[in-house]
Structures are given as C-alpha cells and as structure tokens.
Amino acid sequence: MIRQLHYVLRILLVSLIVLLPSIAGSQDKIEVLGLRHWTSKGYTRVVVDLSAPVEFLKNRISNPDRLYFDLKNSRISKEINTALPVGDGILKTVRAGQFNQDTVRVVLDLEEIKDFKAFILDDPAQLVIDVYGQEKISKTQDAAPAVKIIVLDPGHGGHDPGAVGPNGLYEKDVVLDVALQLRTILSKNKRFRILLTRDKDVFIPLVERTAFANSKNADMFVSIHANASAKKTAKGIETYLLNWTNDEEAIRVAARENAISLKKMKEQMKKYKSDVDIMLSDLRRDLKRDESIKLANYVQSSIVSTLGENYNDIKGIGVKNALFYVLFGARMPSVLAEISFISNPVEESRLSKESYREHIARAIADGIDTYASGAPQMQKIAGRK
Ligand SMILES: [Zn+2]
User: Fold this and answer.
1) Which of 31, 92, 217, 301 matches a 20 to 30 Å C-alpha distance to 232?
2) CA of 155 to the centre of ligand 1 (A)
C-alpha cells in the first residue's frame, strides 16, 4: 500500500515537473497580436501589436537584404495574418513567425532603405519600426513648392475623452473645436495646406497620428491638448517638444497624454533609454529639435499674449520637454500645446466658451504663421522650477 502510494506520488511529481514550465511559460509569454503598416514616398511605419511591452534584439542581414527583430519571451497568435505584402519601394514584405520556443521573429524584407528606427510603446503595447527610403524628399520638387503642409492633431476622440473637467467638459471636444477653427483660419493663407489627424469625434491611435504626418511629408505637426492636474488650482498654458526631462510635472503630463500610469512611464524611460536616445540624437542631427523649440516658443508666447489681452490672470508656464508618444518618430518640427487646464474650474468654464477657444485658435495660427515666415529665433526653453 505504502509502495503504491509512493509510486502514485512519484508519477504526480514527475508530471508536475514536466507540466509546470509549459503552463507557466505559455501564461508568461507576450503575444504578438498583429502586423500593420503605413506607407508613403520615402517612409514606411510598421507596427507590431503586442499583449505587453517586449524586449527585442534587432539586426540587419544581407542576401537577401532584411531587418529582423527578435521579440523575447513571446509567442505569435494563431489568428493573425503573419505575412503582410508592402511593395512600396522601401519594403517588400513584413512577416512574423515563431522562431523558437521563446522568440517571435519579425522580418522586414527590404527593397531599398536609408535608415530605420525602432521603439516600444506601452498600452497599447506596440513595437514601432520607422523605415526611411533612399530618396530624400525634396520640397522644391513638389508641384507647389511654396505651400507648407501643416498637420493639426486634436488629441483623443471617440471612446477616449481625454481629461474631463470638474463640470464634465471633455478635452476631446474642446481640442477638436480649436483644431477646426484653426484650420479655417490657416486655410485663408494660400501658403498653407492644412490637414487634420481627425476632424470628427473618432479615436485615432497615437502611432497613426505621427505616421499620418510623416506620410503626408508635413512641414509642421501641432498636437492640441488640454491639461489636467490633481491640484484644482493648477492653471496656465504650456507647450512641449520631444526630449528627455527630469521635471516631475512634465513626466506626469506625458504619462497622462500617453495614457499610461506615471509608474509605467518612469519604468519605460529607464528600460528603453538607449532606443529613445538614438531617436533624440537623430533629431539633434537633423536640426529638427531646434526647429521644434522655435515653433513651440512662437505658439506658446502667442497663446499667452493673445489670452493676456483678454483676461487678466493668464499664466504662461513655458516651453518644456517630455517624451510624448505622439511626437515619437515625427520627421518634421513638432510640438504639443496644452492650451489650458480643464481640471481648473475657471479654465474649464473658459474652455467651454466659443470665444475663448477662438482666441486660442487665432493665437496658435499666429504662432505658426510667425514660425513659417522665418522670423529670427529669440526664445528659450523654460528652466526647471
Ligand atoms: Zn490630451
């Protein structure tokens, strides 16, 4: 009897040892949920949708020329299409497969590329791969060389209301109205072509907004948001550009706009520092950061002075840096304006008024116009408090 029990126990123990790693393994694995791409002349963005942020290795190999990304501790969903034909002169195909038990390999078969960048976003978790073609886009070759393309990006939309004011005002509605008014104002200037990432109440993922601006070869990208803080008294206007920051407030604002927790935002800043550093050094090299600083300063000072002419307690917080997903990978001068605090009852009440939103739209238009006319730079970034 004892011997039999011993035998049964041994079988149980052996099966547990055999089964446990596979049970635990399949539960831990990050799932690859889909492949998507946006394409245009000289630029392709590939997005790999994931169940959670993943660590990856990247490599480029020849014969045939391809890029691959090995996603650690991952498995591929059986339901997804694992081969995506592209054929845009930059990429032939994108494909994904289970490379070994723990690794999914995503392969980009190349036609001709100049450069690429890859980074991970959180919630929804995505591996974003931006691939640049050999052809340098030249504005002078465009049919209408004097027309600057400006992409306006009203934040949030659809199921994502953005920040909600104490009296129930939605950020998504305020910023859409400002963007629509801004389009009307800027469209009067024949030098501008105005495009919106959304012109109605729909949700657009952050990666699609930048991809849209890149694919249109835009000259400027202006994302419009309303600020929020747990402190009801927090108020004022601030304009951001993409860069590292240690400013706790700026990190908090970016976390909220990225729709992730402050904790996750900080974890991510640590974890993907090297990828983000590469992206930022490219921005410096291309002088896009200097241009973004310039644009941010014109927009910021214009909003503060225009509102200041009409209200006596307008506070300019300044131009600041933070890591906003919506600015990641943008190939043109790009800024994100926080036009007022919707969480502040006074500013919420103002934001609910057509006249206040019109002042802001006119002010942003003036800032863009001043920047586009190439006025000399005389601005600075606000220091840390
Ligand atoms: Zn927002």
Assistant:
1) 301
2) 5
